[in-house]
Amino acid sequence: MSRHQYVRNLDYQDAMDEFEGFSEEEDELSPEDRALMNQGVADVQAALGVEASKVTVAQIEESLWHYYYDIDKTVTYLTSKFINPRPKATKPAPQQPNGKSVTSTIDFAPAGLSLELDLHPNWATKCLGLTDDAIPAPRARPSLSHFFRDMPWGNIPKHRETTFIPPPAAPGGLLGGSGAPPKMSKLQALAAARKKKAEEKNAVNDKVEQARMGVKELSVKEPLADKANLSTAGPFSKRLKTSESAAQDRVAPTFATQPTQPEPAQPVEVAKAPEDELPLAKAQPSAFAQSLFGSSSNTRKSEAPRDELPDIQAQHFAPPKIDFPFCVGKAPKPTPTSIELGPAFELSKRKRDDSEGYETTVVLYPNLPQFVRDNFAQPSPDDIVLAAQAQAKGKAGQKTTAQPKKKGTQSTEAVTAGVNELKIDDAPLPKSRNLDVLSEFEKSKSKKTASFVVVGHVDAGKSTMMGRLLLDLKVVDQRTVDRLRKEAETIGKSSFALAWVLDQRSEERSRGVTIDVATNRFETEHTAFTILDAPGHQDFIPNMIAGASQADFAILVIDASTGAFESGLKGQTREHSLLIRSMGVSRVIVAVNKLDMVAWSQERFNEIKDQMSGFLSSANFQHKNIAFVPVSGLQGDNLVRRSSDPAASWYTGPTLVEELENSEPNARALASPLRMTISEVYRTMQSPVTVSGRIDAGSLQMGDAILIQPSGEKAYVKSILADDAPVDWAVAGQNVVLHLSHVDPAHVRVADIICDPAKPIPRADTFTLKALAFDFLMPMQVDVHRGRLHAAGRIEAIPALLDKVTGSVIKKKPKIVKPATVARIVVKLDGLVPLEAGQRVVLRSGGQTVAAGLLE
Ligand SMILES: Nc1nc2c(ncn2[C@@H]2O[C@H](COP(=O)(O)OP(=O)(O)OP(=O)(O)O)[C@@H](O)[C@H]2O)c(=O)[nH]1
């Protein structure tokens, strides 16, 4: 045996074990291994010749293990290590070429800082440009300030240095304050005076116009009620003073019948208090502060007792002029309605204008505590609307909240009971018809359902073939395809028109590759099929895994054109075949495509058939479960109809659709607890939480309570769609859309599992997998893929190597697993994931599939 053969046949597992000294069978080399080792030792000794005596057999054997029996490497190693060991080079202390070390001091003059640097000589030479001679003597501490002397930040003259002047504290503030205007510079004062002048000019005209518009829209229900009320004396006069001064600078909606003139000196009948009693000395609280805390105490002092205030709720003034100085937010839109002021607001100023009748200015001061109380004593606008709606519906007797509630009647118990009744979703629970779904299913005699995934190397023609199939089966019409062809032509991809029937994303169309699994449906006489068109590009293998996890069987598309089959076999033809098998797909139809490009060569077809049969058998597909069909997806030959091309007459077998019909879907776990993997979550008119996916096991019906894992949230099935039609129930194997209720969308994600609340799927962060290795496996980081779920994890342990066929343990605790072998591995995830025995899982690492298998 040559060394190469020797290395190729090497058992990596054993090699790793023994090299690392971990193997329990360390000293028990098999007779075959011992013979190989002896042979290796002899080879090495022969290569070393007379020098062989300088190394022991043990050293040779150890080196051979280390270098995987590579004789050349072993000899090189032994020679350099034991026979002619190189004298150990003593590392000279880092030194300056001229033996000097450089210490430099950088002075930051303005800051008065000095930074001392111990520079490596190379730095001094290369970066600072110091010549060997220029490098100062040790500890010379040369100043580097000269180096920065022309830097503006290094030499700012004192008189140009910036002095930080803190900004003056803002006067007033949110909650009021001194009230004094902010200090202004002369320039600011000048600018402000000019601005004010200009604004005053404009504002007069604007206000007049605004007021006119407002008054036009206002309609007054009743004439002025009681004029005497308008001349309310006493407390209002004080308010008037303060409010007037405050209002002058305020831009507040004002409704007036006359162009606004500077108001004449107040003929206010109500102002009786002496000037010195006016609360002007103290700053007026800001509007915001008043809103929060009510009127300031000095203002309150001047107010009349609440009881004395006139009830202005029922009063209407014509034409009213209302000033809302404390309105925050939108100004009230003038509407043709009466203006009602609740007692929460206090009337502060009224004015009589004889020329225009009564003109009233009302300044509103919210008296917050009272305001709050009274707000709850009166029906809210919502209450009023609800009451009106109820009335309109003729529900006169119905109790509405529009009735004024008596103060203090809301007992603590009532509030508590109300809070207890609060639910996220107050809608009634969906009603269940409590059907016996399994017997309904048996009675239904509906067509059998089957899902198949279309896999294969990139550009093998998967989407084109499915597009053609749908066209020939009249699921899509010719006009649609013609439109797609036109669109494809505009971007120079006319050959992809049929593929666009499935590839509907703009990115897929512009790039000419499938990115995510596309689904579509068609029916034959006996079966309702769901197509899962998977992407072929290796970057999108996780999406292909998601598609394969929902499939009963697969169509493996192979590009028969010259060279394409061969490169596919090294690429995704191989990877997809292994993946689908590991995902539990046992039936595969191999569509040998693009035969039109090789003139329907029977020879080429047979060549591909032979190679693929061997490969698929080695991938554990049974011979009876493999079928081959020569097709042209582009032209539709042998898909739905037999090829009319005379060159293809040699094929007389079934078409692709006939082969699909001959395929039996997997047995459905109808009686098992409900399991449905969510493929999509979205919002619809029917429900804010609509999910789609395939029922993996069990059944469900409308009104069912379900549990969503891993969130553990409960939800209800409001309605079900199967094949876009509403149904009362659905069973395993069906692809359905569920409208859910009583669940927050935040708790529902793609790849979650819907399950029976009585028999929920457990959540786990560690699982044991019986895996087929695609690559070398050892304790390492991996991405775990289960359907659409991706989770980060790590291979924690490899308890055993297993026999591929029987599953019995061949070897315990291997340190490494070779490709194409089966092992039991323990994987630890970073978080909790719904997992249970029987699920199919794929492990990937560094963008490559490294293993796939079944949870134990
Ligand atoms: N001549 C010929 N060309 C074909 C046939 N089938 C597909 N093609 C061409 O092959 C190219 C790729 O076709 P797609 O259907 O996009 O291939 P795909 O396998 O779906 O590609 P991905 O999903 O991105 O991996 C397109 O230009 C098709 O027109 C065929 O039977 N004959």
* β-sheet strand percentage: 15-25%
**Biggest sheet statistics:** 6 strands, mixed
- What is the class of one domain in the CATH system? Alpha Beta
Q: Tell me, briefly, the overall form.
A: extended
Relevant terms:
single chain, 856 residues, alpha+beta, 6-stranded antiparallel barrel, 23 helices, 27 strands, extended, binds guanosine-5'-triphosphate
Task: Give structural notes.
The chain has 856 residues and is α+β, with helices and mostly antiparallel strands. Among the domains are: 88 residues, no CATH class; 88 residues, no CATH class; 206 residues, P-loop containing nucleotide triphosphate hydrolases (Rossmann fold, 3-Layer(aba) Sandwich), CATH 3.40.50; 81 residues, Translation factors (Elongation Factor Tu (Ef-tu), domain 3, Beta Barrel); 93 residues, Elongation Factor Tu (Ef-tu), domain 3, CATH 2.40.30. The protein contains 23 helices and 27 strands. It has a six-stranded mixed beta sheet with strand order 7-8-6-9-10-11, with helices on both faces. Strand 16 and strand 17 form a beta hairpin. Helix 3 crosses helix 5. The longest helix is centred in the N-terminal third of the chain and has 32 residues. About 27% of the residues have low confidence. It binds guanosine-5'-triphosphate. Guanosine-5'-triphosphate binds next to helix 16. It holds the Pfam family GTP_EFTU_D2. Keywords: Cytoplasm, GTP-binding, Hydrolase, Nucleotide-binding, Protein biosynthesis, Translation regulation.
